[in-house]
């Protein structure tokens, strides 16, 4: 990436260059983390569901209601473990990708293990930030849904008001969410590269995006749209081909022996599509996190002259005059 203010086209292309230059560390990390989340979810929630089904199936008529309620509670509680794992691993992936982009800008290429060790140092502030976002979303949505439910108890007029309020509230929330997520999108970069706490990172992201809101929003949304469309272009034809294959090879749902051969075809379809979705989900995570990181660097170049510090750092490194602990992204006054 050139060490100068970036054009809109460069901003769009740079995240994909990050993926291309070091796919083992970037895409590999995303695949490992997404697979781990899926595996933990399948084992924990699947095991809890199997246990619950077994208990309900063997329950006597007298105990059926209480056992069913307890089994439902077990399944619901079991989802908390995958959520916790997803929270921590998502923070780890964010940290990995922010560090990778910052090193690539300096012309360095880190190995997967190096990135993971460096990223682990900032995982807890990032996890706290992710948890804070989730908590705010739950509280706000819960409040809106609560008002809608209360309005429905009033009667016919209340039901009409509930519909109107619901439509207006969710439209307003969509606009508010777009605004806040854009203004605060640089928080992970600030937490990782500037070693800031969550509160300081929120204020810093807010200031950096001043006067560059629409540029930031447009870049993030356009990159997300490109990745989403590319994913659908690949997945949908494969789904269509497998669907036609099921209809041609097993039009009645069975083969000559009566075995439901379409089960194998459908199973293969879900497996292939699942793998493709895993890969594209990992690619999307990498590209979108890289996009935010590139925007962060670009805004610091435009507003703080970071390019001069980066050039000085690179020149000092090449002439062997670089301090081992020096970090060009660090803000003065932060440890």
From TrEMBL:
Keywords: Membrane, Transmembrane, Transmembrane helix. Residues 167-306 form the Glycerophosphoryl diester phosphodiesterase membrane domain. It holds the Pfam family GPDPase_memb. The chain crosses the membrane at residues 30-53, 73-102, 123-154, 160-180, 221-249, 269-297. The keyword Transmembrane applies. The keyword NADP does not apply. This is Glycerophosphoryl diester phosphodiesterase membrane domain-containing protein.
């Amino acid at each position: 990436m050139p060490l100068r203010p970036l054009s809109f086209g460069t901003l769009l292309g740079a995240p994909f260059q990050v993926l291309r230059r070091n796919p083992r560390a970037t895409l590999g990390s995303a695949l490992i983390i997404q697979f781990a989340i899926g595996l933990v979810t399948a084992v924990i929630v699947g095991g809890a569901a199997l246990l619950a089904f077994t208990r309900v199936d063997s329950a006597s008529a007298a105990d059926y209601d209480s056992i069913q309620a307890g089994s439902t509670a077990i399944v619901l509680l079991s989802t908390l473990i995958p959520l916790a794992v997803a929270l921590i691993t998502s923070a780890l992936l964010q940290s990995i990708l922010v560090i990778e982009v910052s090193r690539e800008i300096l012309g360095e290429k880190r190995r997967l293990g190096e990135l993971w060790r460096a990223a682990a140092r900032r995982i807890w502030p990032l996890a706290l930030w992710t948890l804070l976002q989730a908590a705010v979303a739950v509280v706000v949505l819960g409040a809106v849904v609560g008002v809608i439910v209360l309005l429905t108890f009033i009667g016919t007029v209340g039901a009409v008001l509930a519909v109107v309020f619901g439509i207006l509230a969710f439209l307003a929330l969509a606009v508010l969410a777009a605004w806040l997520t854009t203004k605060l999108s640089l928080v992970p970069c600030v937490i990782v590269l500037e070693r800031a706490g969550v509160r300081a990172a929120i204020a810093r992201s807010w200031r950096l995006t001043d006067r560059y809101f629409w540029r930031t929003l447009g870049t993030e949304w356009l990159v997300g749209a490109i990745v989403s469309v590319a994913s659908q272009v690949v997945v949908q034809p494969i789904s269509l081909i497998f669907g036609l294959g099921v209809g041609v090879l097993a039009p009645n749902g069975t083969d000559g022996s009566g075995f439901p051969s379409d089960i194998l075809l459908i199973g293969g379809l879900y497996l292939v599509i699942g793998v493709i979705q895993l890969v594209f989900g990992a690619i999307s995570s990498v590209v979108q996190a890289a996009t935010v990181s590139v925007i962060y660097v670009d805004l610091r170049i435009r507003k703080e002259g970071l390019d001069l510090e980066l050039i000085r750092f690179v020149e000092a490194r090449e002439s062997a005059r670089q301090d081992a602990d020096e970090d060009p992204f660090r803000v003065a006054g932060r440890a």
